[in-house]
Amino acid sequence: MSMVQEDDDLDALVRSRIRALRVAQGWSLDELASRAKISQSSLSRIENGRRRLALDQLVTIARALDTSLDQLVETASDDVVSNPMIDGAHEQRRWSIKADPGMTVVRRRMTDPPPDNPAHLRAHPGREWLVVLSGTAILLLGNRRFRVETNQAAEFPTMLPHAIGSAGGPTELLGIFDRDARRGHRQDLESEDRGGSPR
Question: Hey, which CATH number is domain 81-193, 2.10.109.10, 2.60.120.10, 3.30.470.20, 1.10.443.10?
Fold first, then answer.
């Protein structure tokens, strides 16, 4: 892939991430523009690709969205899906993740496929990991689609618009969230704690 293509891909990713974070907050263009102290028309042109992305504006927009510039421009590596390391002596499977304190682990059972409308993908600060215990999960990550099979794990920044569903039939997985990702999924996790089903 050429440098120009990579720059265009990052540019499109940042624009879609700004829009996804704004929509996730329930904010209109006007509300985010006001918080970022830029005009509504400038923000609209930034989201739609009709205005060049300027570093100073990205810093201001990131701050208004309660995130950092690093998270706003973070890209996914190609090693999203991983296989377990087998510890035969202890009959255990281990998945290596870059963990930090304040993690939350949730066991989930899903039967529905991920949403087919890109507008239903979510983006928010944080990192998320998942381990498929049984079945096959489909992970939508930006404009990419991953099949995560039983005993595979996936790790990704939640600033990328994302959704998870079943590939058909029941799928059980462990979802692991850092503090920021937990906040981004607060409503779903609280619903599960009350015995409801996640969206």
Answer: 2.60.120.10
